[in-house]
Design brief:
The complex is a heterodimer of chains A (130) and B (520). With 130 residues, chain A is of the alpha/beta class. Chain A contains five helices and five strands, in the order E-H-E-H-E-H-E-H-E-H. Chain A starts with a strand and ends with a helix. Chain B is of the alpha/beta class. Chain B has 20 helices and nine strands. Classes of the chains: A alpha/beta (130), B alpha/beta (520). At the A-B interface, helix 1 and helix 3 of A face helix 2 and helix 16 of B.
Chain lengths: 130, 520
C-alpha cells in the first residue's frame, strides 16, 4: 500500500512553490498526496490529517513562523490522540533544528534538499512510527 | 584604465539608439553616465523603530532609496493581535498596525527628499493612506511625495498569494489608487508591475516577461475604464523584474520588455506621450538562486545577477544578502550586498556605455526570440479575455491558468535539478565546505511580537473611539458604492488611528474574501 501524505501551509505564508513541487515529487515516488491549500491553522491541519488517515504530515514554512506554528501542529495532533509524524520544509535557520526536534518535528528539509532525500527520510520515518 | 576614450553609446548610425522608440537599448540616451541606478535596498523587520534604525544605516552607507518590507500580518491586512498573526509579527518584515507605527518607521527621514517604495499589495490603498497621513502630519504635502506602491494585485493571485478580496473587488481599490495618485500625487508611481514574484514562484523567464507585461496592459485598461487616458496612467507604472542566474537570457528579457511595452503602448493603446512608451524597472537578484549550503558563495551569484540587471539597463536595484536562504539578512550581510552594487557602479566601469551588449548577434537574437514567445502568450491571454487583456488576466486567474503554468514550470526545473541535468554549486556538486557553517544570522524573537501588541494596545486606548467608528462607517458606506474613490475615506480613517486590520476587515465585510481552490 502506498504512503499517504498531507502537505500543508499553516499561518499566513503564501509561498507555495516548494510545497507544490515537493507534492509532485512525492507523487512521482508513488505516494498519495493531499494538499490543504493556503492559510490553515494547526487545528484544521490536525483534523484533516486524521480524517484523511495519512501516514505523515509535511509542513512548508518560509516566513519565519516555524518555531511557533510547527510545534502547535504536533500538539494539535497529539491532543486529538494521533501519533502521525510531522516533518517540515522551508527556510529554517540551523540553530533552530535541535529545538524543533525536541518539540516533536521528525525531520527538517532545508533549501536544496533533494527529492531522493525527502522520499527516503519520509519512508524511514513512517516505517519507524508504524 | 588604459585611458581609451569611450563614447556614451556605440552602434551603426542608422541603427537603434537608447532613449529612442522602441527603447530596446534603454530608456535614456546616455543611461548611467547621467544618472546611476538607484541602489534601493529592501528592508523591514521587527517593530517600526528597528526598521527605522536599519533605514538610517542604509542611508548612511550610501543607499539612495528606501524600500519597505512588511510582515505577513500587515501584508494580509491583519492587526498584530489577530489570532492568525501568532508567530508572524515582525518576522519577515516590519509590523505596521496604525499611523503610530508609520510615524516611528520614518522618524528623522525627510519623506520629501528620498523616494520610498512600499512592497504591499492587498492593503496597498490603506498603506498609501497611512503614508500620506504621516507625511502631512510632518508638514510634507502629498504632492511632494515620491515613490512607488507595489499595488500589483494580479500577480498576488497568480504567484505570491497574498490576497484578501476577490480579484474584481481588489481591482476597484487599484483603480482608486491610480485615479487618486494621478490627480494628487504627481511624483508617485501608482503600481510596480512585478514579475519578480512570478519568477520566484517558478515561472520561466519568458513567462515572467509575458505575464508581467500582460498585467501591465490590464492596469492600463482598468484605468481607461475609470476614465483616465493611457497617457495619464502609463507613465506612472513602473516594473519590477527578477535577475536570475541565466545571465544573457536575463539581459535579453529586459531588452525585450522595453521593446514590447513601447510597441503595445504606442500601437495598441494609442499612447502619444513618450513617457508612456518607456518601460522603467526595478530589479532584484533571485532569492531562489541562493543556497543554504556554503552561503558565502551567494555573494558571487548575486554579483553576477546584479550585473545582468545593470547591463540590461535597470533604473534601480536590490541585491540579496548571502544569508537569505537561512534567515532574514543580518546587517553585515545586507551591507555586503549593497557594496556589491557599489563595486559594479564605481569600480568596473560597466556603467560608462549604454547597452554595451547591443549589436551582439547572440543578444539581439535572444531578445527577438523572447519578444516572439511573449507575443504568443499575450495571444493566449487576449483570447481568454475575448480581446481584453484586463478580462484575460482576471479569467486566467479565476480558471487557475497562470497558477498552473507557473507550478508546471517550477516542477520541470526541479526535475532537471534532481536528474543531475543542471548543476548547483554546493548542492549537486562541489560539496566540500558544506559543513562549515559559522555564519551569524539575524534572530527575531517573540519579544517583538509582545512589544508590538503592547504598542497596539496603547494606540487603541489613546485614540478617540467615536472618531474611529465614524471613519470606518463612512468607509463601509463608500465601499458599497463602486463609483466612489475610497482614498479620501481611507486617509481620514488613518488620521483617526483606525488600524490596518480594522480598515481591511471593514472592506472585507463589503467585498467578501477570496479563497483559492487548492490545486497541485
Amino acid at each position: 500500500m502506498s504512503l499517504r501524505v498531507l502537505v500543508a501551509k499553516v499561518g499566513l505564508d503564501g509561498h507555495d512553490r516548494g510545497i507544490k513541487v515537493v507534492a509532485r515529487l512525492l507523487r512521482d515516488a508513488g505516494m498519495e498526496v493531499v494538499y490543504t491549500g493556503l492559510f490553515q491553522t494547526p487545528e484544521t491541519v490536525a483534523s484533516a490529517a486524521i480524517q484523511e488517515d495519512v501516514n505523515v504530515v509535511g509542513l512548508s514554512m518560509l516566513s519565519g513562523a516555524h518555531m511557533t506554528l510547527a510545534p502547535l501542529v504536533v500538539q494539535a495532533l497529539r491532543e486529538r490522540g494521533s501519533e502521525i509524524p510531522v516533518v517540515l520544509g522551508g527556510i529554517v535557520p540551523p540553530q533552530d533544528l535541535d529545538e524543533l526536534r525536541d518539540l516533536g518535528i521528525a525531520a527538517v528539509f532545508g533549501p536544496g534538499a533533494s527529492a531522493e532525500e525527502i522520499v527516503r527520510t519520509i519512508t524511514d520515518i513512517v516505517t519507524l512510527s508504524a | 584604465m588604459s585611458g581609451i576614450p569611450l563614447a556614451p553609446v556605440y552602434g551603426p548610425s542608422d541603427g537603434e539608439f537608447p532613449g529612442l522608440y522602441p527603447y530596446t537599448r534603454g530608456v535614456h540616451a546616455s543611461m548611467y553616465r547621467t544618472k546611476l541606478w538607484t541602489m534601493r535596498m529592501f528592508a523591514g523587520f521587527g517593530i517600526a523603530t528597528d526598521t527605522n534604525a536599519r533605514f538610517r544605516e542604509i542611508i548612511r552607507s550610501g543607499g539612495t532609496g528606501l524600500s519597505t518590507a512588511f510582515d505577513m500580518p500587515t501584508l494580509l491586512g491583519l492587526d498584530s493581535d489577530d489570532p492568525m498573526s501568532l508567530g508572524e509579527v515582525g518576522r519577515c518584515g516590519v509590523a505596521i498596525d496604525s499611523l503610530a507605527d508609520v510615524r516611528d518607521l520614518f522618524a528623522g527621514i525627510d519623506l520629501g527628499n528620498i523616494t520610498t517604495s512600499m512592497t504591499i499589495n492587498s492593503p496597498a490603498a490603506v498603506m498609501l493612506a497611512l503614508f500620506v497621513a504621516q507625511a502631512e502630519e510632518t508638514g510634507v504635502a502629498r504632492a511632494r511625495l515620491g515613490g512607488t506602491l507595489q499595488n500589483d494585485i494580479l500577480k498576488e493571485y497568480q504567484a505570491q498569494k497574498e490576497f484578501i478580496f476577490p480579484p474584481r473587488q481588489s481591482m476597484r481599490l487599484v483603480r482608486d489608487t491610480i485615479a487618486f495618485t494621478a490627480a494628487e500625487m504627481p511624483k508617485w508611481n501608482s503600481i510596480s508591475v512585478s514579475g519578480y514574484h512570478i519568477r520566484e514562484a517558478g515561472s520561466t523567464a519568458v513567462e515572467e516577461l509575458a505575464f508581467t507585461l500582460a498585467n501591465g496592459f490590464a492596469y492600463v485598461e482598468l484605468a481607461r475604464e475609470a476614465g483616465l487616458t493611457v497617457d495619464e496612467v502609463a507613465p506612472r507604472l513602473s516594473f519590477f523584474f527578477n535577475a536570475h542566474i541565466d545571465f544573457f537570457e536575463e539581459i535579453a528579457k529586459y531588452r525585450a520588455a522595453r521593446r514590447l511595452w513601447a510597441k503595445w503602448m504606442k500601437e495598441h493603446y494609442g499612447a502619444q506621450d513618450e513617457r508612456s512608451w518607456q518601460l522603467r524597472f526595478h530589479t532584484q537578484t533571485a532569492g531562489v538562486s541562493l543556497t543554504a549550503q556554503q552561503p558565502e558563495i551567494n555573494i558571487a551569484r548575486t554579483a553576477i545577477e546584479a550585473l545582468a540587471g545593470v547591463l540590461g539597463g535597470t533604473q534601480s536595484l536590490h541585491t540579496n544578502s548571502m544569508d537569505e536562504a537561512l534567515a532574514l539578512p543580518s546587517e553585515k550581510a545586507a551591507r555586503i550586498a549593497l557594496r556589491t552594487q557599489q563595486i559594479i557602479a564605481h569600480e568596473t566601469n560597466v556603467a560608462n556605455v549604454a547597452d554595451p551588449l547591443g549589436g551582439s548577434w547572440f543578444i539581439e537574437e535572444l531578445t527577438d526570440e523572447m519578444e516572439r514567445e511573449a507575443e504568443l502568450i499575450f495571444g493566449l491571454i487576449g483570447k481568454m479575455g475575448e480581446g481584453s487583456m484586463l478580462e484575460g488576466c482576471i479569467r486566467g486567474i479565476e480558471e487557475n491558468w497562470f497558477q498552473g503554468r507557473i507550478a508546471d514550470s517550477a516542477y520541470e526545473l526541479e526535475r532537471s535539478f534532481n536528474s543531475g541535468e543542471r548543476v548547483i554549486v554546493g548542492v549537486s556538486d562541489f560539496l566540500e565546505g558544506n559543513d562549515d557553517n559559522d555564519l551569524a544570522t539575524l534572530r527575531i524573537t517573540n519579544e517583538d511580537e509582545r512589544k508590538q501588541r503592547a504598542r497596539l494596545d496603547k494606540v487603541r486606548l489613546d485614540r478617540d473611539a467615536n472618531q474611529v467608528r465614524d471613519a470606518l462607517a463612512r468607509l463601509s458606506l463608500e465601499a458599497s458604492n463602486p463609483s466612489v474613490n475610497l482614498m479620501p475615506a481611507l486617509i481620514d480613517a488613518a488620521k483617526a488611528y483606525a488600524t490596518v486590520g480594522e480598515m481591511m476587515s471593514t472592506l472585507a465585510d463589503v467585498f467578501g474574501r477570496y479563497v483559492e481552490v487548492p490545486s497541485l
